[in-house]
């Protein structure tokens, strides 16, 4: 069941909300939690009932392992570090089997000429996300950061439907204290208004921005996968279109996840914060898929040694982290290359910052046009990397990259991929990504996420006046936006979110 499907919007979500608040109002709080767990499993099983067994098995194993690791439940003769290792290996083995077994078998066959033939393994939905949630839980339990071990609440922590399919990746200590608050069981008009507004803004990004620009991206990459080289302009149109499609698709999903949770009075960590406004790659990764970046930093980069063991080791740790981050996104060498390319970007970025620091230069105090140039260079570097992320294989990516650098000439002639309308839409969407406040900034007075967004709104009287307030005028505007969005949804096939594939 997709967030942007009619059955979710008009049936599933309203039913989940109404029953939850009715149970809470009657004082049946444990039953209300159980209801959310039940509807979350129903939501997950909508795609394939057999997935529920895997999710339940993973939850049971990790819950009891976490209890054994907890310092509150001391078990005699237990080596906690060994048990943590076993727990992490179990989770990664589960993820590895379903997501990477066929990939590794095919790679071995290509390298050694062997003929390993595994049966087709269907990738269970969301396994990457709920696996990382539970690995983080085990480490937090070992460190003493997970303090409550109610099974029902743990089930909700893992399966809560707004974050189950594509994140954000949440921590036990972020979610469980919220489940313990009495306020979430009572209907709150402010939470509903804020959550509904964010949800509608997210779905409008998906419908009017991401889906709108998908066609030229698909045309260019599909042609390249058949060996057809696009022209210089076609290649750039395709790469830019995909970059914007992914941006607004993931931004829209992140808003919808935060909005849906907020309707229940629950706040999620921020997962998307205008990454194309970043002035370097380091900042980009602080803004893009923020909870994944946090996970990779806290549970991979820092345990590897982080920046504590010299510059060379720091760069090695960065490269390992980004390569594995790329592989997490998908079982393919294009994802590995994409992660490695971002690793190279980060190493160059850190080295450049070191040089500037030695020269006594403070980049944050640079003139506006220098910061703008840095933003443009960062954006172009990210667009080039997205080509490998989107391409079906390295050959397809190579065809498009060659055209982008002019290896096939600098033709700007018209084609089926380029129309004036598409070019105008691309330009407008780039300006939206660069120049307008994001959802969290617009709603910052009502704290839509756990984190407070710094520099929450432009220091401009007009923007301040336009900041979201629960007024009749803005209510009418959001209502019209919701009407137009749902009307569009009902008249067109429902499209999947891109991050559902990862």
Folded structure, characterized:
The longest helix is centred in the first third of the chain and has 33 residues, at 80-112. It is globular and about 70 Å long. The protein contains 21 helices and no strands. Helices cover 67% and strands 0% of the residues. With 502 residues, the chain is an all-alpha fold. The two termini are 16 Å apart. The protein folds into 2 domains: 6-180, no CATH class; 189-268 and 406-502, no CATH class.
Q: Outline of this structure?
A:
By secondary structure, the chain is mainly α.
Write the layout of secondary structure elements.
Layout lengths: L5 H20 L3 H17 L4 H20 L10 H33 L14 H17 L7 H9 L1 H4 L7 H8 L9 H22 L3 H12 L6 H32 L17 H7 L2 H12 L9 H19 L3 H26 L9 H23 L3 H11 L15 H16 L3 H4 L18 H6 L5 H19 L12
Count of the separate structural domains: 2
Contiguous helical run count: 21
N to C succession of SSEs: HHHHHHHHHHHHHHHHHHHHH
Helix content: 55-70%
Stretches with pLDDT under 50, minimum 5 residues? none
How far from one another are the termini? 16 Å
Please give a handful of descriptors for the protein shown:
single chain; 502 residues; mainly alpha; 21 helices; 67% helix; 0% strand; globular
């Amino acid at each position: 069941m997709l967030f942007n499907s009619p059955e979710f919007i008009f049936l599933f979500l309203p039913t989940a909300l109404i029953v939850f608040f009715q149970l809470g109002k009657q004082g049946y709080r444990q039953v209300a939690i159980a209801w959310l767990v039940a509807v979350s499993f129903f939501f997950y099983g909508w795609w394939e009932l057999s997935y529920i067994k895997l999710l339940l098995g993973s939850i049971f194993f990790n819950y009891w392992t976490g209890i054994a690791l907890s310092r509150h439940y001391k078990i005699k003769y237990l080596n906690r570090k060994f048990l943590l290792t076993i727990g992490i290996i179990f989770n990664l083995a589960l993820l590895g089997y379903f997501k990477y077994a066929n990939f590794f078998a095919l790679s071995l066959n290509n390298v050694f000429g062997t003929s390993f033939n595994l049966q087709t393994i269907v990738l269970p939905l969301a396994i990457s996300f709920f696996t990382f949630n539970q690995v983080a839980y085990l480490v937090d339990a070992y460190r003493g950061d997970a303090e409550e071990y109610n099974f029902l609440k743990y089930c909700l922590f893992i399966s809560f439907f707004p974050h189950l399919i594509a994140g954000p990746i949440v921590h036990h200590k972020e979610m469980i204290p919220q489940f313990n608050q009495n306020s979430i069981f009572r209907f709150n008009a402010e939470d509903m208004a804020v959550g509904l507004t964010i949800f509608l803004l997210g779905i409008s990004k998906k419908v009017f921005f991401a889906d709108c620009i998908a066609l030229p991206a698909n045309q260019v990459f599909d042609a390249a996968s058949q060996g057809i080289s696009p022209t210089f302009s076609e290649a750039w149109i395709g790469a830019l279109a995909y970059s914007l499609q992914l941006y607004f698709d993931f931004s829209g999903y992140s808003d919808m996840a935060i909005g849906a949770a907020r309707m229940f009075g629950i706040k999620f960590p921020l997962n998307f914060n205008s990454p194309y406004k970043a002035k370097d790659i380091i900042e980009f990764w602080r803004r893009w898929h923020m909870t994944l970046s946090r996970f990779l930093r806290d549970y991979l980069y820092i345990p590897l040694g982080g920046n504590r063991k010299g510059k060379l080791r720091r760069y090695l740790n960065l490269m390992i982290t980004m390569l594995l981050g790329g592989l997490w996104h998908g079982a393919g060498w294009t994802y590995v290359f994409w992660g490695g390319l971002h690793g190279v970007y980060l190493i160059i970025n850190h080295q450049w910052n070191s040089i500037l620091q030695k020269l006594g230069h403070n980049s944050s105090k640079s003139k506006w046009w220098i910061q703008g140039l840095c933003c443009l260079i960062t954006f172009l570097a990210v667009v080039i990397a997205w080509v490998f992320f989107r391409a079906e294989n390295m050959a397809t990516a190579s065809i498009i990259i060659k055209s982008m650098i002019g290896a096939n000439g600098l033709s700007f002639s018209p084609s089926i991929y380029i129309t004036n309308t598409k070019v105008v839409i691309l330009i407008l969407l780039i300006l939206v990504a660069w120049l307008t406040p994001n959802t969290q900034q617009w709603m910052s007075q009502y704290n839509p996420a756990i984190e407070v967004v710094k520099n929450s709104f432009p220091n401009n009287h007009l923007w301040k006046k336009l900041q979201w307030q629960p007024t009749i005028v803005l209510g009418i505007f959001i209502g019209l936006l919701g009407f137009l969005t749902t009307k569009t949804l009902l008249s067109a096939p429902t499209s999947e979110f891109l991050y559902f594939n990862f």
